[in-house]
Design goal:
mainly beta, five-stranded mixed beta sheet, 1 helix, 9% helix, 33% strand, globular
Length: 79
């Protein structure tokens, strides 16, 4: 199945010039697995924040469906 992955905030650098990428992932794939397929080991990224699917914040181990839009956000900081 195909899902679109978009990186937001400081995570954008991991996709270079691309705003988003479409990946073919297995049925029942989780957000965690999809990010790994995209080459993003979020556990090793200090400023990794959270993910959303179709503009709703979800847990990293939630399952994706065909055509979903997965967004990964960096932590927000400031004062």
């Amino acid at each position: 199945m195909k899902v679109t992955i978009t990186l937001r905030g400081t995570l954008r650098k991991y996709f270079g010039e691309d705003k988003e990428r479409v990946y073919d992932v297995p049925e029942g794939c989780t957000c965690d697995e999809a990010l790994k397929i995209a080459g993003l080991d979020y556990k090793k990224i200090k400023n990794f924040g959270f993910v959303s699917v179709n503009n709703k914040r979800v847990m990293i181990y939630d399952k994706l469906q065909e055509g979903d839009l997965l967004k990964a956000f960096s932590k927000v900081s400031g004062g």
